[in-house]
Design brief:
The protein has 107 residues and is an all-alpha fold. The protein has one domain. Helices cover 80% and strands 0% of the residues. Helix 1 crosses helix 4, helix 2 runs antiparallel to helix 3 and helix 4 runs antiparallel to helix 5. The longest helix has 25 residues. The chain is elongated.
Length: 107
């Protein structure tokens, strides 16, 4: 199912990215079929362009980098969206996420 991305909500980007990454193989296979079997040259050309982009190192690296970043931000974002959020709790959660992320990058 396609996800609509909202410009104001970080988590809408996370959910959309999760869908793309979870269906990555199917997307690539579908674009391959459209590129090779489409009678419409324009559709085949566009599918080929999307296929090149989806299979590029730049796309894969960026997608997984954002996946990690958005996983870190998800609990903080959820906490800050509550009407009765605790600023001190949010501050501790952010510091905890930063420390955990630094530990992972050192490994």
């Amino acid at each position: 199912r396609l996800k609509r991305v909202s410009c104001t909500r970080w988590m809408s980007h996370k959910f959309a990215l999760d869908v793309v990454l979870n269906t990555y193989v199917a997307i690539v296979e579908c674009l391959n079929v459209i590129r090779s079997e489409s009678g419409d040259k324009k559709a085949g050309s566009e599918a080929g362009g999307f296929l090149n982009y989806f299979q590029s190192t730049r796309f894969v690296y960026t997608a997984y980098s954002f996946k990690v970043l958005l996983q870190i931000l998800e609990p903080v974002s959820s906490l800050l969206q509550k009407t009765d959020f605790d600023l001190l709790a949010a501050s501790f959660l952010i510091k905890k996420k930063i420390r955990k992320n630094c530990f992972i990058s050192i490994r």
